[in-house]
Amino acid sequence: RGKDEKYKVRMPKFRMAKEYKDKRKSIDDVERNIFNFKKSSEEKSKKMDKEEKLFRETFMYHREIRVLTTATAERSVPSQRRADLPLTAGEQLDVIDAVQGHAVICRNAQGRYGYVLVEHLNFR
């Protein structure tokens, strides 16, 4: 042992009731999660606003954006044009408007908008 350790006073660890310890951990976790949630939701809302503005300019859509129904992508499809929405299999999409014969305007979970062919969607 070194000289510093020789004269070090050791404090006994007090035993805590397991229930109190678990409760304290859960309270701390909740507080941390609340702050992280607020920060990420602000960033996400800014990104969603930016995507919505881009959508309105690209599609010249001046009406209120309302979700008509939700659909699931049956297969992955890359986008052919800038106005098309790239899909991944099993992705949930909000159908905004049915404007053309075989295509609908959809929004994905990231807030991006675009045309999707009805053939690639499963409505339930």
UniProtKB/TrEMBL annotation:
Keywords in alphabetical order: Phosphoprotein
Database matches in Pfam families: hSH3
GO cellular component: plasma membrane
GO BP term (any one): integrin-mediated signaling pathway
Nucleotide-binding found in the keyword field: no
Domain Helically-extended SH3: 55-121
UniProt xrefs under InterPro entries: FYB1/2-like, hSH3, SH3-like_dom_sf
Domain of life according to the entry: Eukaryota
Name of this chain's protein: FYB2 protein
Origin species: Panurus biarmicus (Bearded tit)
